[in-house]
Amino acid sequence: MIKKCLFPAAGYGTRFLPATKATPKEMLPVLTKPLIQYGVEEAISAGCDTMAIVTGRGKRAIEDHFDISYELEHQIRNTPKEYFLHEIRSVINSCQFTYTRQNEMKGLGHAILTGEALIGNEPFAVILADDLCDNGDGESVLKQMVEVYERYSCSVVALQEVPKEETSKYGIIEGKLIDQSDDIYRVSSMVEKPDMDEAPSNLAIIGRYILDPEIFDAIRETKPGRGGEIQITDALMELAKKGRVIGYKFKGKRFDCGSVEGFVEATNWFYEKSAK
Prior knowledge:
Strand order of the largest sheet: 8-11-9-10-12
Strand content: 25-35%
Structural class: alpha/beta
Number of helices: 10
Radius of gyration: 18 Å
Shape: globular
Largest sheet: 5 strands, mixed, barrel
CATH class: Alpha Beta
Order of helices and strands: EEEHEHHHEHHEEHEEEEHHEEH
Helix content: 25-40%
Low-confidence stretches: none
Mean pLDDT: 93
CATH superfamily: Spore Coat Polysaccharide Biosynthesis Protein SpsA, Chain A
CATH architecture: Alpha-Beta Complex
CATH topology: Spore Coat Polysaccharide Biosynthesis Protein SpsA, Chain A
């Protein structure tokens, strides 16, 4: 049912300056693979065959990565180094890529709305590439969420428990546990980056969503919130009031690769995993 995955990829990546001055943060490599490729592979594992990428100025490297490099391929054809391109070739052959630009940085909600022309009137997934998830040999986080969507037919957000003192970094939900065995919540409210003493829970929304197309109208009606940006949590709040948002505590490990600490942790994790 979910065939398209949207990647908001227009942000500046200021926490990684000067590395991101000329290199998109989504192209920063964990080992030998850029962050956005991990996300695309996760989307493919969940059944998506169209990647809709919202980019901005200075992001051409993303388009080039998911394209054929004739000169490079000619140089290494029939050599042992050709092996290193097998993985990205498989990705390119497994899906199609569409692109549009977000001209102004007005928040995640605005970035998702910018991608409406690429999505159309159908449910879709959203992956934030700097939230890198790994579930070993089990089902990917997005595949788990697709199965939840198929059960409830409404928007689904990925949840992770965080320390109370870190709630100010996330969108935090309030909800009722409706399936204890699968850690599924009916979301009744959510708050963007609340102070610790104002957070309704310690269940944080991380960078995985499945959204019904009704979200686009909700975003259009959403006024700028915290930081003067159009927050996706504010738009989802309107759907939650109608009982149209499910929260799912996913199975797997998540790394915040939008921070230097999380990026280093992910690099060490995947290195140790590859060495086994």
